[in-house]
Design brief:
The protein has 207 residues and is mainly alpha-helical. The chain has 2 domains: 64 residues, no CATH class; 114 residues, Rossmann fold (3-Layer(aba) Sandwich). It is 53% helix and 0% strand. About 3% of the residues have low confidence.
């Protein structure tokens, strides 16, 4: 169950797998459990213990929601019941490629080993008076300096900043549109695509 966390980056770049577990093991957890009796038992026992905790909390604080029900079905924990019933949260939808505010490129930047390695050197950085941040301690230079030398990293950072710009611009223009009404000009810095300005022009088409 822990190995999939090491493959988050691969999963985000894979259009076919439902989750990191499938990317890592080639199948879903319930499919693997059918083939592995020990894993099957472990999952069922975990679901059962979790069910007891959840049920006790619900019945203590939200007992009224059951008073008008005629029946309740307990799904999982070895009961043999199967049901596919789920939906994406608002945050999860931002990882869908078809979502106009998709920020997957930004997550791919954060999950790149080049960006993750500095976290292993936090202690060294805190003992170093010369380096500005852990990235410099790890790689000997700042991120933008390294990006100039690495075209792939350069493109990845630009795409990440562009996707972040779309999301930030849409939120700002939706909730704080008034702050732009008295401005004569706006400069979009970073990302290389002008996404912020594009969103801004769409909201102030008369400008």
């Amino acid at each position: 169950m822990l190995d999939p966390w090491q493959n988050m980056s691969k999963w985000l770049q894979n259009e076919n797998d439902i989750n990191p577990f499938q990317t890592t093991h080639g199948k879903m957890a319930y499919e693997l459990a059918v083939e592995d009796p020990k894993l099957y038992q472990s999952i069922n026992e975990g679901m059962a213990s979790d069910g007891r905790l959840v049920a006790s909390v619900i019945l203590k604080h939200c007992k009224g929601i059951f008073e008008e029900l005629d029946s309740v079905v307990d799904v999982g924990g070895g009961t043999g019941e199967e049901r596919e019933d789920y939906s994406l949260t608002s945050a999860s939808r931002l990882l869908l490629k078809e979502d106009p505010l998709n920020i997957t490129p930004l997550f791919l930047v954060f999950l790149d080993p080049i960006m993750l390695d500095p976290w292993q050197n936090m202690s060294k950085w805190l003992q170093n008076e010369n380096d500005i941040n852990p990235f410099q301690t790890t790689h000997g230079k700042m991120a933008y300096e390294l990006a100039v030398e690495d075209p792939k990293l350069y493109q990845s950072i630009n795409e990440g900043m562009a996707s972040d710009g779309r999301l930030v611009a849409s939120v700002i223009l939706k909730h704080c549109k008034g702050i732009f009404e008295e401005l004569d000009s706006v400069v979009d810095v970073g990302g290389g695509t002008g996404n912020f300005c594009k969103v801004h022009c769409g909201s102030f088409s008369q400008s």
